[in-house]
Each structure stands twice: as C-alpha cells, then as structure tokens.
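Lay summary

Proteins are chains of building blocks that fold into shapes. Our project writes down both the chain and a compact code for its shape. Here are two examples, one after the other.
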Amino acid sequence: MVNMNREEETGKHKIWKYFLVISAVIVIDQISKFFVERIIQDGSVYLIGNFVHLTLVKNTGAAFGILKNQNFLLAVVSAVFSLIALFYIIMSKDKKYKLCLALISAGAVGNFIDRIRLGYVIDFFNAGFWPAFNIADSAISLGIFFLVLMAMFESRKKDTGKMDGKKKGES
C-alpha cells in the first residue's frame, strides 16, 4: 500500500480556497464601487466624524497619484502581475504565501476591471491625511504587508538559527 501524506491526498493545499478568496475580494470590491458610484455623486458621506468619509474619486493613476493618465500601462501591469501571482499560487506549497498572493492578485484584478470598464479606478475611502482608496487597494496593501512580515520573520529565524549553530559548535 502506498503511503501518501495529507498534502498529496488533498492536492496542493486545496487551490480552490485561494480562488474563492480572490473571487470574494473582487465581488466585494466591485459591489462597493457600484454602490458608491451611484450613491455619492458630489461631496462626501461622513462615517466617523470628520476623520473617515466616503468620497467618489475617479483615479486615472496609480497609488498616491503617480502615473496619472497611464491607464493602458497600468492595466497591462495589473494583468501581467495577476497572471504571475496566479502561477505562484498554483505552484507554491506555502499556504501563507498563497494567501498573500491571492489578496494582491484580487486587488489587482479589481482595479484592472475598473480600468478596462471605466478608464479609471473608483476610490472612495477617504481619511483626509491619506489618498482615497478602495477595497482592492486594501487587499493589495494587506497582502504586501503580510508578505513583508513573513519575510522579516523568516529572516529572523535564519539569523537565530545561525547564532544557535555557532553557539553549539563553539561549545
């Protein structure tokens, strides 16, 4: 009898879970943009005093207003990055890495849909001190944040292992 480990029995970490995350983020992003675009024409809707409000912003650039009116370039970059991320989601064995890539990919696809459909990205969360953003931007930011965090912890584990190895070898 062949002994298969759990990963082999269930496939590569049940890929469908990551596609479900991607789909859910895209749907929530697009629905939120749909309602914001229809409800908020001019002005803002205040959520938390004067601190957080919803404001319809038609963003023709990237984060922080860079690359204004470069819609085609940004759409191509989003599409290419999403395809590369999907490849790594399928090929990677690390569940946390896959989840981070799923969030980043979902955000890129959400904004890609806006660029193709509208020629701009709808941003609407406005905290005053920060440029307006949307659900897709939040997913991208969270994915990148957790990737960086994972890299930092991985680096610390390697450094700790090296120091432990030296101490053991010196004794």
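And here is the second example, written the same way.
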Amino acid sequence: MDNLSPLDFFKLECSNEDAMVRTEAMQRVAVIASLLSPDKVRNELIPYLITKTNELDQILLELSSKIRHFIPYIGGIDQLSVMIPLIEQLFSIEETTVRNCACNSVNIILAQLNSAQHSMVVNHFIEMGKRILSIEDGETFYGKVSLVQIMAELFRLADVDNKAALMEILGKLGIRSSIY
C-alpha cells in the first residue's frame, strides 16, 4: 500500500465494502484532488467520481458538499466544463438532500465568479439545462427541480442573450417569466 498514489488509495477506499470507509474517503475527496495535478483531476478523478453516482446517499452527500472546492484543482473556472457531467448526475439523484447540497455547491461556485467568467460558465449550465429538458423519459424530474434551484444565480450572472436562453428554459420548466 506504500506505493499507491493518492488517487489509487482513494479508489481503493471507495471500493471498500464498508460504507463508513467509503463515506470517509469521500469526505477527503477535495484533499485528494489537491494532491493531484489539474490534468489528473480532470482526466482521472472527475471521470471516476461520475462512475460513483450510484453510491449510497450519505456518500453522494459528501461528494455534493465537496464539489464547491474543486475549481482550483481542475485548473480554474475555465475548466468547469469537465465538472458539468458530474454536476448533472448529482442533480438527478433521487435523494433531496444530495440534490440540494449539489445545488448549494453550484450556487457557491457561481457566486465567486468575476464578470469576465460569467458568460462562459452560464453557457455551460444552459447547455446542461437543455440536455436535462430534452430527455423524454420520467427520469428528468429531479434534474428539473435542481435546475430551478440554480436559476436565480444563473440569471443574475447572465448577459442579455443568456437571459433569453434561461427564460426559455424557465418556460419549459413551467415557471412564469415574471418571477425573474
């Protein structure tokens, strides 16, 4: 075990049969990310975490609470697109506390943006919203609920063009545009 990299050790703990060990591992995911290069976080850790979205709720809750810390570890906000699939998965989890925590983490990330970053980041979430809305089966309810929870922050950041796209998403979600 002495020769294991931090990522390999994390994966080993995440595959343990004991849910407490897996939960404690997920509590340390931001520390693991800080020990890796941004390339390893983007190309190995995030894809691995996407595969773990079928875990127990307590483990996903830990992951949802930690994603807010990932921006520096992925190489900055310009690399946010690599996290969108993970966020989208967490937004679609059945357990309300997991989804709410993921939404809270995203809102914290959005609140930290400077004006030069707004358009690019909002575009990522608009595309995610369009994907969630385009799914035809009944699996989109949770994703739609999550979208609503980040709309106010997205709308605050959006330029005129993005506000129009957000209004379209809101309309498809059944929310009257007069709210915003």
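What can we say about the second shape? The two ends are 54 Å apart (CA to CA).
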